[in-house]
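Researcher: Here's a chain I'd like modeled. Treat it as a single chain, no partners, no ligands.
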Amino acid sequence: MNKKEILQALKDKISAKILVFENLIAETRASSNDTKSSMGDKYETGREMLQQEINNVQRQLNETLNQQDFLKKINTETCDKVQNGALVKLKNGFFYISVSAGEIVVENMKIMTISSESPLSKAMFGKKIAEIFVINNVTQIIEEIS
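Model: Modeled as a single isolated chain. Structure tokens:
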């Protein structure tokens, strides 16, 4: 499996997510401007709620931008141990150690993207092929690393 394709698919997913957040912020700001009125406190409360929504989406956007920056540092070379950028095969599927962005499909193969800060990543970090680790009282064996 080509790790460059996996990384590109992940970058595309993150870029799409960034666009959604940016559009949502722009739309929410536009609707906030529409609520300006001399009608009193009711509209002030509505604008405050919209501002809180903008702040929430802005925080999510910042986290996604950080993920995008992190992906720029990922190496697509073959790995001999579990580390950032490693594609790991366990009995229950493929896991790409990078950022937590859910499932992606590359070459008709489902790959779960997980953060290096996730408990699963931490449990197998530094391990090599055929090494065993335990997570949630379940014993796992690393079948492949690329």
